[in-house]
Amino acid sequence: MDQQYFDITPLSGALGAEIGGLDLAQPMDDDTFAAFCAAWHRYQVLFFRDQELTPEQHIALGKRFGEIDISQFIPTVEGYPEIRLQNMSKSGSIPGDVDWHHDNSFVAVPQKCSFLYALEVPAAGGDTVWVNTVSVFESLSKPMQEFLEGLTAIHDVIDIMGPKLIKQNGPKAWQAARDRSPPVEHPLVRIHPETGQKCLYINPLMTSAIKGLNVDESKDLLEFLFQKMVRPEFMVRFHWRKGSMAFWDNISTIHRGIYADMPDLSKEPRVMHRVAITESNYTALNS
Ligand SMILES: [Fe+2]
Question: In this structure, are residues 140 and 148 in contact, taking their beta carbons and an 8 Å threshold?
Answer without folding.
Answer: yes
